[in-house]
Amino acid sequence: MKKLLVICLLTLFFAPLAHAQFGVKGGLNVAELTGRDGEDASYKAFYHVGIFYQAHLLGPLSIQPEVQYSLQGGNLKSAFTNYDSQLHYLTVPILAKLTVGPVFIEGGPQFGVLLGADQSGNMQVGLAPDGTPAYGNVSRPATGSFKRGDFSLAGGAGLKLSAGFSLGARLVAGLNDINDVQNLSGINDPRLQNRVYQVYAAFQFGGGK
User: What is the per-residue burial (b if ≥16 Cβ within 10 Å, else e) of 32-51?
Assistant: First the structure.
């Protein structure tokens, strides 16, 4: 992860040689946490904002590193639990971008660093005196329940409009397990992965190309 972040920074440094353009972007996250046995995952609406740097390389091909604040997570529900998780990430997508006319497609890896997490709702809070799981309705910080690093693959497409504006949609699929705590009852698979659908608007300074 560190090596690819260094590559990203080097790209930002040398991009002016390849006619690069800064931009800002923001939009909707529709996110869920997948992979846990015994709990049903459902999507929750969040948001993301960020900046990007499109470096034109050859013909229609460019590379586009981004830095984003991305709020994601989701709802998990079982027979006894029903709670929401909010995960605050600093994400760095490094995307290859192919533009043909007004249409573009993009794809590449994304690295995320967890800044903080919160959970609220009815969830397992411990064990009762008889050893059975105890549940309660709580709202609490949960940063320690998740791993700090996240690795994903991102891909999407969009449409360039006039005056530097563009619209796009993207799927970000987490590949690594982000859960960092064992289920207290010991009966559920603790594996969790991020999955985020993004719809965004972007603006490139200088009109975009």
Answer: bbebbeebebebbebebebe
**Within a 10 A sphere around the Cβ of 183, how many other Cβ atoms?**
16
Q: Say which residues have a Cβ less than 8 Å from residue 186's Cβ, sequence separation at least 6.
A: none
pLDDT by residue for the chain (209 residues), tens only, comes to 555 554 554 554 454 444 568 999 999 999 999 877 778 999 999 999 999 999 999 999 999 999 999 999 999 998 889 999 999 999 999 999 999 999 999 999 999 999 999 999 998 888 889 888 899 999 999 999 999 999 999 999 999 998 899 999 999 999 999 998 765 454 455 689 999 999 999 999 975 55
Distances (CA, A) of 198 to 43, 71, 126, 143, 155: 12, 11, 35, 23, 10
Strand partners, 86: 73, 118
Query: Taking CA 133 as the corner, what is the angle to CA 127 and CA 138, rounded to the nearest 5 degrees?
Result: 85
Q: Is 135 in contact with 121 (CB distance < 8 Å)?
A: no
In the block, residue with structure tokens 């309705």: 137
β partners of residue 64: 95
Question: What are the backbone dihedrals phi and psi of residue 143, each rounded to the nearest 5 degrees, phi first?
Answer: -60, -40
Q: Measured between alpha carbons, how far is 175 from 9 in angstroms, rounded to an integer?
A: 23
